[in-house]
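quick q for whoever's on today - can somebody do inverse folding on this one?? i tried earlier but teh output was garbage lol. tokens:
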């Protein structure tokens, strides 16, 4: 189909979630999956693929960091804030993320969601999420974490999904 891909180089990290901050597309922020409750936040240079550790991105909501894993990152352009979602397969939570220190601050439980796999902000600042246990899209209150089921996706999703908005068309894409 004529698509050209540019390989930026090998990367040793297993990134599970990522997003850009604002209109800066030279740096992507990504969470490395550690499987021991100590996932790490990295900045990734989009010109050469190199990554720089910012710090351990600790999850705290479940009380058992070894079972709670990061599942999504999304930038809210209306507030200039990075948000992250986590899940342990039974519950899901919403955090704000400090990109300079990798400090995660719990916002609250994402209600009606046991397995939130990714999150995405619309251009107007509305947060949406994809729950793969429900196979549904939810709207999420970014100030409390309250989740409201919008509807089914119509397919059986199983990990490694991603989603984001095309800000120019206000269209949510899910892969």
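ok took a stab at it. sequence:
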């Amino acid at each position: 189909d004529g698509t050209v891909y540019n390989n930026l180089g090998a990367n040793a990290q297993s990134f599970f979630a990522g997003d850009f901050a604002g209109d800066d597309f030279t740096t992507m922020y990504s969470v490395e999956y550690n499987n021991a409750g100590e996932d790490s936040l990295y900045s990734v240079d989009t010109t050469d693929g190199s990554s720089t550790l910012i710090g351990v991105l600790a999850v705290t909501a479940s009380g058992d960091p070894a079972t709670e894993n990061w599942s999504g990152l999304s930038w809210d352009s209306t507030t200039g804030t990075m948000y992250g979602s986590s899940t342990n397969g039974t519950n899901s939570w919403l955090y704000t993320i400090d990109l300079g220190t990798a400090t995660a601050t719990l916002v609250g439980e994402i209600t009606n969601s046991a397995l939130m796999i990714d999150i995405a902000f619309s251009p107007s600042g509305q947060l949406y999420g994809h729950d793969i246990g429900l196979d549904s899209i939810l709207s999420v209150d970014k100030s409390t974490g309250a989740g409201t089921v919008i509807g089914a996706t119509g397919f059986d999703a199983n990990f490694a999904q991603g989603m984001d908005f095309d800000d120019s068309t206000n269209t949510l894409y899910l892969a």
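fwiw The radius of gyration is 15 Å. also The chain is about 0% helix and 50% strand. so keep that in mind when u check it
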